[in-house]
């Protein structure tokens, strides 16, 4: 991910002006769930990831891709469209953008109950962020149907 300090002034200013548009949330729990050791956890990323053979992300796309829980690193592709996006970390270790190996380790070590059967990736950098509301509601139903009760957000 590029640092704000490394961006051209116009790009940095454009990023910073979006902050007041972000939704505000209270500090309280939305719902109470089971202890971490009993939770089923899914990853939701904004790295523009998809499996080989799946449709690449297009410019300004608001959709997401479903990533099976048994995917291997070699079967995951990044088609993020932003020119400011540094892919080198992902190319060296997919866990930088999509920490599925770490999630599997947490499940193996019984720190979490289980990794979900499916994970999801959006292509971030879409403005305004509130445009995601419809797809977020759709994704919430998929997570519910998969009995997911915790989400690891990987905003990149």
Task: Please explain how this structure is put together.
- The chain is of the alpha/beta class.
- It has one domain.
- It is built from 4 helices and 7 strands, in the order αββββααββαβ.
Number of helices: 4
Major sheet description = 5 strands, mixed
Strand content: 15-25%
- Which regions have little confidence, pLDDT < 50, spanning 5+ residues? none
In total, the number of domains comes to 1
Order of helices and strands: HEEEEHHEEHE
Attribute tags:
alpha/beta, globular, five-stranded mixed sheet, 19% strand, 156 residues
What's the short story on this structure?
The chain has 156 residues and is an alpha/beta fold. It has helices at 9-17, 88-92, 100-108, 133-145, and strands spanning 40-45, 49-51, 64-68, 76-78, 114-115, 118-122, 150-154. The protein is built from 4 helices and 7 strands; from the N terminus they run αββββααββαβ.
Give the helices and strands, then pairings:
Layout: H1 9-17, E1 40-45, E2 49-51, E3 64-68, E4 76-78, H2 88-92, H3 100-108, E5 114-115, E6 118-122, H4 133-145, E7 150-154
């Amino acid at each position: 991910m590029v640092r704000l300090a490394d961006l051209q002034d116009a790009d940095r200013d454009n990023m910073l002006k979006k902050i007041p548009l972000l939704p505000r949330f209270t500090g309280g729990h939305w719902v109470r769930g089971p202890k971490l050791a009993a939770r089923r956890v899914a990853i939701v990323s904004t790295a523009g990831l998809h499996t080989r053979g799946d449709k690449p992300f297009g410019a300004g796309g608001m959709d997401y891709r479903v990533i099976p829980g048994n995917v291997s690193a070699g079967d995951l592709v990044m088609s993020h469209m932003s020119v400011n996006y540094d892919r080198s970390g992902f190319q060296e270790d997919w866990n930088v953008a999509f920490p599925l190996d770490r999630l599997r380790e947490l499940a193996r070590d019984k720190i979490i109950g289980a990794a979900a059967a499916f994970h999801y990736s959006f292509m971030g950098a879409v403005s305004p962020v509130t445009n995601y509301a419809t797809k977020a509601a759709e994704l919430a139903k998929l997570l519910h149907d998969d009995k997911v009760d915790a989400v690891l957000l990987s905003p990149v």
